[in-house]
């Protein structure tokens, strides 16, 4: 039986993973409409497509997959009521986001003239797949970490969770919560005017979760005041039509690409491929690893002259330097207002291949044990 799969054109390796199942119709995720999916059996989306009754009512769709860790764009209750199977890709790009945050931390340590970056205390707000993986890496690297996750704190009394205020008092505050509008623990505008006011000039705030977790207008106001925190934003309210004034005021501005490593994207596709196989009763025959191309950069070598943090920062930056994405987004903000939204989406659609630290072999000749451990903890392959 041949079936029709309608998919966001930005999901990688659609043909490689899903070509055997039937016809694939590629659609712009942002512009997807009811008529695009009316005759589809399977719908595959990313976070820019709102999957609601107005999109699916009266369609043939029996399975919805999102190649993302977030699900706030999906009306899951309605899907369940209508017998439509659903799968997300939790954790698929967690490591990609973690490497983004580590790269930002390294730049920030240099900006502040901090000799040993692990002297920075880090408050992680939201300790799911991404926050948990970040905590493990920072812990191994010797950072002091405070974990804040009220929903987990309720059910895991044995874990030493911090309050939000304690997390917000750290040198670095990094947000990894889902977007929850209501419920017991809403995260919409979790950082509003009052909490932003309490942040100090010697703090760094990073948001890679959802734009709406931070009140962007309140943040813009705060950044115009004395003793404002240093801010790195990857997510924004009202994407793709974001506030150019806010881009101008933050230290680092990137176009919602923290999770955009090639490995992360392919894992997202692989997870929904596995779910489609289970749904259809087919065997799982393919894995993301078989489709990974050779990395552009495959080897780095450091000698006994290398200084520990400097060498680690160099290697991280060879894989990913957030300043390139920052420069591209700022150029886009210079365009006419009517063109900015499409240009923001284009930065994501045409995003250059970014590989994770694990794709690079690092050769160390006569370097310290500390440096060897640091490279291992960051996730590089070691060749000693």
UniProtKB/TrEMBL annotation:
It is found in: Cytoplasm. GO terms for molecular function: 4-phosphoerythronate dehydrogenase activity; NAD binding; protein dimerization activity. One of its GO terms (biological process) is pyridoxine biosynthetic process. Gene3D superfamilies: 3.30.1370.170, NAD(P)-binding Rossmann-like Domain. SUPFAM superfamilies: Formate/glycerate dehydrogenase catalytic domain-like (SSF52283), NAD(P)-binding Rossmann-fold domains (SSF51735). The active site is at residues 210, 239, 256. The keyword Cytoplasm applies. Residues 291-379 form the Erythronate-4-phosphate dehydrogenase dimerisation domain. Pathway: Cofactor biosynthesis; pyridoxine 5'-phosphate biosynthesis; pyridoxine 5'-phosphate from D-erythrose 4-phosphate: step 2/5. Substrate binds at residues 47, 68, 260. It holds the Pfam family 2-Hacid_dh. NAD(+) binds at residues 149, 177, 234, 259. Its main location: cytoplasm. The keyword Oxidoreductase applies. Residues 114-258 form the D-isomer specific 2-hydroxyacid dehydrogenase NAD-binding domain. InterPro entries: D-iso_2-hydroxyacid_DH_PdxB (IPR050418), D-isomer_2_OHA_DH_cat_dom (IPR006139), D-isomer_DH_CS (IPR029753), D-isomer_DH_CS1 (IPR029752), D-isomer_DH_NAD-bd (IPR006140), Erythronate-4-P_DHase (IPR020921), Erythronate-4-P_DHase_dimer (IPR024531), NAD(P)-bd_dom_sf (IPR036291). Keywords: Cytoplasm, NAD, Oxidoreductase, Pyridoxine biosynthesis. Homodimer. Catalyzes the oxidation of erythronate-4-phosphate to 3-hydroxy-2-oxo-4-phosphonooxybutanoate. Belongs to the D-isomer specific 2-hydroxyacid dehydrogenase family. PdxB subfamily. This is Erythronate-4-phosphate dehydrogenase.
